[in-house]
Design brief:
813 residues; alpha+beta; 8-stranded mixed beta sheet; globular
């Protein structure tokens, strides 16, 4: 009897406990009273929070969702994006019909779901899920399919794990993310990201009605045009194509906090991950990533290859429509066929395979998801209008068929990525290709025969050269990197420079002097002679040789060779007749020779060179000593970045580093680098911004002395912009040659680059795009080194400037 009583008591307690849990759950689903400003709704495990907030410096109130346990308030969804509440009167309530109402002053409806959902529920509830999704459901059916409304269907600027971007084929509903206007205003600007509803759907970013960047279509593994959105240990990606066409991603490790967001400052889609140790958001990837991601940069039937110079090329079988404009780097007109296709000869047509490319814009395509590649070829060949075909799924042996009509637009070369596309060619082009193959086969046979004779001689010569290098190189037995450059004899350099005569001396820097020289073939060179008294020079010398040997870009100085013999360590560069940018803009007489069109060309050229260093070279390189005297000018006044003695290389995913020894030039160093030793691509971008402002004003950042206040050059420029007088920054000698829209845009971009917070500064892809477009730019925040009092005292600055001597002496390299 006692056991029976205990058993019944146990069951009674269990029932009471379950009833309590059920009541708690119901209460968490449906607030007992409206949510007013100052109260919040938290998800069950505390990942997200719903409430009222004011963004940035704004006083307006918005209803939004943010991460609960992250100290930096990061808003991921906003209800009343363009209809703020101006006071603390906001109230959120759920009525009996299941509609969510946001009320403002005098109980006026500011925002609601009533126009969004026509479903009704007998017992509606409101719940904030652990995914960050705010849902309204009915007690009678709590499955996700039965939700009356959910915030995931109406994204703001952020794509969270599990959220969709795409469209519903039957209803026409679209899931599109749109950037905030700025940090103070969540109302959408014209930057949006979504799936284009083509026959062959693709993910793209738009600015207004214009396509801005294409990720390309999904090919079974990833989007054709990007390598970033691929499966990895943290994330997996999903693309669905049926009644709904959408893309979304999921986290494999639920302890990771990750999001995708459209950044209005840089006009990029960013993938961010929370770094709890550093209490900051880490940037994992961006899109667009480089210059070639600019939509239709090379026009129709052109291909963009970021490793080439120039980047735009006509596809095989095509030629520039307007050669003169094309050769002047105006590529918008694109390319045309050398031999037009003829429908009568379609049986003789064939295809040339183009590998590792982002497929063309899919706006004019036809798709069959079940065809194989052989059937796809036949389908294209049977249609006079078909110009190209490809698989839609590149996994395993490939499947599916997409064919293109009309001009091919926005093709990009992606080494190690992309996919194969077969482009239609007339018989004459195919014969020419066959002839070239035959000639190549003959040439290969001849070369093969000769190789047998030369190979023995090569190894003998190589052994001799290696032994000689060992004998003359300092530090015998130390492992040296292969410098992959010609090695000059010291006697050749001495003769070329007239024994380093003062007459041939071009300049002097922290690590040595630079001399002009003439080789016996009358080729002009510039020789950097490392100072024997420099304790740091050997390391910087080797660093510069190894780095520059691997860099090839029209806006980087070209290293011709080196010399290591005895105590002498020399670098041999191409000679640039017009010296440095500093020698022009800071000299009253020379400045008049550098009119505004040339200055704008120089600014854009420096940006392209820096973009190559940060994004597109084989190594991610941070220069760390970017300044006007390290920008050299050739005989056509094209800028070339020089002096890589203090540069640092990063791995593909690394974005910043730290050093105990701060080196560089005062006036150009970013605040976080000068004070804390933190350097990144954003510290180079700060230096670039200083160069831009100096080039416009003709004033040295370090020596700038305002007349009335204690502002620096950056502070003075920012103040002028806030007052609408930024044109006054322009050097007086440029008044007659100026293009006011270009000048104002450059000042604006320069101030964006010198913002105090590195995260606020744009990336170099964004800088290049901003300089070359007419899009609306975000307002810059207060710059670093706003006033003279922001600067370190001279005694302290001298102690950390290893290259202090370079502040006032020209370094021509």
């Amino acid at each position: 009897m006692r056991e029976c009583f205990l058993f019944r008591s146990y069951h009674l307690l269990c029932c009471l406990f379950l009833l309590f849990r059920l009541c708690s759950a119901v209460n968490s689903l449906r607030p007992l009273e409206p949510i007013s400003d100052g109260r919040t709704l938290v998800s069950q495990n505390g990942s997200f929070e719903l409430g009222f907030f004011s963004p940035g410096s704004s006083k307006n109130r918005y209803l939004g969702i943010w991460y609960k346990n992250i100290p930096i308030q990061t808003v991921v969804w906003v209800a009343n994006r363009c209809n703020p509440i101006s006071d603390m009167s906001g109230v959120l309530t759920l009525n009996n019909s299941g509609n969510l109402l946001l009320l403002g002053q005098n109980k006026t409806i500011v925002w609601s779901t009533s126009t969004i959902s026509s479903k009704l529920a007998q017992k509606p509830y409101l719940q904030l899920l652990e995914s960050g999704n705010l849902v309204i459901g009915g007690e009678e059916n709590r499955t996700p399919e039965a939700y009356l409304w959910q915030s995931f269907d109406y994204p703001s600027d952020t794509l969270l794990p599990g959220m969709k971007t795409g469209f519903n084929v039957r209803t026409g509903h679209k899931w599109v993310i749109s950037a905030w206007k700025n940090a103070d205003d969540p109302c959408p600007n014209d930057l949006t990201c979504g799936i284009e509803p083509h026959a062959y759907p693709e993910l793209s970013i738009r600015k207004g009605d214009k396509e801005y960047y294409r990720h390309g279509p999904w090919n079974g593994l990833h989007f054709s045009g990007t390598l970033h959105l691929r499966p990895n240990p943290i994330s997996e990606y999903e693309f669905v194509h049926n009644d709904e066409v959408f893309f979304r991603y999921h986290l494999k490790n639920m302890s990771v906090i990750s999001r995708m967001v459209l950044n209005p400052t840089t006009s990029t889609r960013e993938r961010l991950q929370w770094n709890d140790a550093e209490k900051t958001w880490s940037l994992l990837s961006t899109a667009p990533t480089d210059y070639c991601d600019s939509y239709a940069l090379c026009g129709v039937n052109g291909k963009c290859a970021i490793s080439s110079s120039p980047v735009c090329q006509c596809l095989k079988g095509f030629r520039p429509k307007f050669p003169e404009r094309w050769n002047s780097l105006v590529w918008a007109d694109g390319c045309e066929r050398k031999t037009p296709l003829s429908c009568q000869d379609k049986e003789k047509d064939g295809f040339i395979k183009f590998s590792n490319i982002k497929v063309p814009d899919t706006k004019h395509t036809w798709v069959n998801w079940g065809m194989d590649l052989k059937e796809c070829r036949a389908k294209c060949l049977s249609n006079c209008s078909c110009v190209a075909y490809s698989n839609t799924d590149i996994r395993e042996d490939g499947s599916g068929c997409a064919i293109w009509f009309g001009d091919l637009i926005d093709i990009k070369e992606i080494p190690g990525g992309g996919q194969d596309v077969y482009i239609r060619m007339p018989a004459s082009e195919l014969r020419a290709k066959g002839d070239r193959r035959f000639k190549a086969l003959i040439a290969a046979s001849v070369i093969g025969a000769v190789c047998g004779i030369l190979i023995a001689g090569y190894f003998i010569w190589r052994r001799f050269l290696t032994a000689k290098s060992k004998r003359i190189r300092e530090g015998k037995g130390d492992k040296e990197e292969d410098m992959e450059l010609p090695q000059f004899d010291l006697s050749t350099i001495i003769k070329a420079t007239d024994n380093f005569s003062e007459y041939n001396k071009l300049g002097e820097g922290g690590f040595g002097s630079v001399y002009k020289g003439n080789l016996e073939d009358r080729h002009e060179i510039a020789v950097k002679r490392l100072s024997m008294s420099s304790g740091q020079g050997v390391k910087e010398f080797k660093n510069e040789v190894v780095l520059i040997a691997k860099l090839q870009h029209r806006n980087l100085v070209k290293l011709l060779g080196f010399c290591i013999q005895g105590e002498e360590k020399l670098l041999v560069y191409e000679y640039l007749s017009n010296n440095s940018l500093a020698s022009f803009i800071f000299d009253q007489m020379q400045a008049k020779l550098l009119e505004w069109p040339k200055r704008f060309q120089i600014i854009c050229g420096i940006a392209r060179g820096l973009l190559y260093l940060h994004q597109d070279s084989r190594l991610r390189i941070i220069h760390r000593d970017l300044k006007a005297s390290n920008i050299l000018l050739d005989n056509e006044m094209n800028p070339k970045i020089s002096d890589f003695g203090m540069a640092r290389t990063f791995g593909g995913e690394q974005i910043e580093g730290n050093t105990n020894k701060v080196v560089g030039t005062y006036g150009y160093m970013a605040p976080e680098y000068a004070f804390n030793g933190l350097f990144s691509t954003k510290s180079d971008i700060f230096s670039f911004g200083i160069i831009v402002l100096e080039t416009i004003s003709g004033q040295r950042s370090r020596m700038f002395r305002p007349q009335k206040d204690n502002l620096t050059l950056t502070g003075h420029a920012w103040k002028l912009m806030k007052e609408g007088r930024e044109i006054e920054l322009l050097d007086e000698c440029l008044r007659d040659s100026q293009n006011s829209s270009e000048v104002l845009r450059c000042i604006h971009v320069g101030l964006l680059c010198v913002q105090q917070n590195p995260m606020d500064r744009p990336s170099m892809p964004s800088v290049v795009m901003m300089l070359g477009s007419e899009s609306v730019l975000p307002q810059p925040k207060k710059p670093g080194y706003f006033m003279e009092t922001d600067l370190p005292i001279d005694g302290y600055s001298k102690s950390f400037l290893t290259n202090y001597v370079t502040m006032s002496i020209l370094e021509a390299r």
